[in-house]
């Protein structure tokens, strides 16, 4: 985020972000005088100025200056725009449209201190789907053999292994040892049990992490993190990071290119899903007990959540 006002959209709400001496401020992107977008203006001494008539607002949304009135004139008490809660974390600005019901979803320890993991933002793009659909796909295992054949899965080994999905408040977690393509299996399988595993963690509503590792290489780990920011019910900004504590000689560009390639395979599928907004009533789509266990848990928890009271980027 720059020092200029930044317009964003969250759950169909137009928001303007700007920096002040006290940190990032988030206001409704609307001057209450004539409805102009405040994001067209500029920041001066920590206050945002409307480009139409120069009305100036502080970080609380209160209008503090109306240039067309004589100096010292009282400013109407109703001259204010809506303020939203905003905090910075993990190189994003997180906004809550209502009173927060939970803190900003956590990221795994060590991903941001630079001491153990090399963390890259590998993707930032808008998908024509709901945030729920994007995250549910991230949690899904059984599509590997079909969408990522030869990369993450194989069409000659398609059975989803049994696994236990646990829930703890707003968090879902589970670990699987998914079938891999035969060439990768042969390369990694140097003895019994030498397989890769994926440990999933989902923090409601739209933040998820996958820890990847190997039974025979306990010191090497990868993380893939996804955050989905719901612009509307059918448009979502997707952020994805890749972190690793090994293979530092591998160029970062190659790591990022691979992850983007996989994400774009996912995007083509997810954008085709109808309805775009994820169905929360489990009767609306057909579910399988083992392959869809995480998805069913996610939909149950998501249906009980008031999104406007959640921090989202």
Description:
With 313 residues, the protein is α+β, with helices and mostly antiparallel strands. It is 16% helix and 32% strand. It has five helices and 16 strands. The protein has a seven-stranded antiparallel sheet. Strands 1-2-3-8-9 form a five-stranded antiparallel sheet, with no helix packed on it. The longest helix has 19 residues. The radius of gyration is 23 Å and the shape is elongated.
The count of β-strands is 16
Major beta sheet summary: 7 strands, antiparallel
Number of helices: 5
Helix content: 10-25%
- Categorize the overall geometry: elongated
Q: Show unreliable segments.
A: 187-194
> Which structural category do the helix and sheet elements fall into?
alpha+beta
Q: Secondary-structure element order, as H and E?
A: EEEEEEEEEEHHEEHEEEEHH
């Amino acid at each position: 985020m720059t020092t200029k006002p930044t317009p964003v959209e969250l759950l169909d709400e137009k928001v303007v972000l700007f920096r002040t001496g006290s940190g990032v401020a988030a206001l409704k992107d609307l001057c209450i005088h004539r409805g102009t977008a405040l994001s067209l203006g500029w920041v001066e001494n920590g206050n945002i100025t409307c480009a139409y008539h120069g009305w100036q607002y502080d970080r609380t949304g209160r209008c503090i200056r109306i240039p067309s009135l004589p100096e010292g004139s009282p400013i109407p008490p109703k001259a204010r725009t809506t303020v939203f809660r905003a905090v910075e974390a993990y190189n994003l600005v997180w906004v809550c449209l209502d009173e927060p019901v939970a803190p900003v979803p956590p990221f795994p320890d060590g991903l941001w201190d630079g001491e153990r993991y090399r963390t890259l933002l590998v993707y930032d793009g808008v998908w024509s789907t709901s945030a729920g659909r994007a995250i549910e796909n991230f949690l899904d295992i059984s599509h590997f053999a079909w969408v990522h054949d030869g990369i993450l899965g194989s069409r000659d080994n398609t059975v989803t292994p049994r696994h236990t999905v646990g829930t703890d408040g707003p968090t879902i977690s589970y670990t699987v040892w998914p079938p891999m393509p035969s060439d990768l299996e042969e390369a990694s399988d140097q003895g019994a049990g030498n397989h890769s595993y994926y440990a999933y963690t989902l923090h409601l509503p739209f933040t998820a992490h996958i820890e990847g590792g190997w039974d025979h290489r306990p010191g090497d780990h990868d993380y893939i993190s996804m955050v989905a920011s719901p612009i509307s019910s059918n448009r979502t900004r997707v952020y994805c990071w890749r972190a690793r504590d090994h293979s530092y000689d591998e160029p970062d560009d190659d790591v990022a290119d691979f992850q983007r390639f996989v994400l774009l395979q996912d995007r083509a599928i997810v954008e085709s899903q109808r309805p775009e907004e994820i169905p929360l009533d489990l009767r609306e789509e057909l579910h399988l007990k083992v392959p869809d266990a995480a998805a069913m848990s996610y939909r149950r928890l998501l249906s009980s959540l008031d999104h406007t009271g959640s921090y989202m980027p």
